[in-house]
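Quick check before the chapter quiz. The format below is the same one you will see on the exam, so make sure you can read both the input and the output lines.
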Amino acid sequence: MDSVSAEPSKWLHPPFSAVRTFDGKIFAHGSQDDKSIAIQYLEAIRNLRNQDFIPVRTVHISYVPNEEIGGFDGAAKSVQSKEFKELNVGFMMDEGQASPGDEFRVGYC
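Here is the expected output.
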């Protein structure tokens, strides 16, 4: 998973050790960008499957590196692959944003 580089001297807690505070917040490298979003997608799929939801098209989730630095070795290479082309993708979403509440912005590209 892609995360912005961490400078340990600028952190209140060690960035490469997950720290959970008394109020339930987790401080760790990538815990918001993008680990929490990745888990939200997996949880959404799990919930839909548990409700026997059948989408009109197959849903694929892919996690690729390098988004923070242009995506040239991640998404750009992925969409050029034979495997990606065989998926016949009709819609592709970017990572989105994490939210501490129950409202989320959805964007598409």
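If your answer matched, good. The mean pLDDT is 80.
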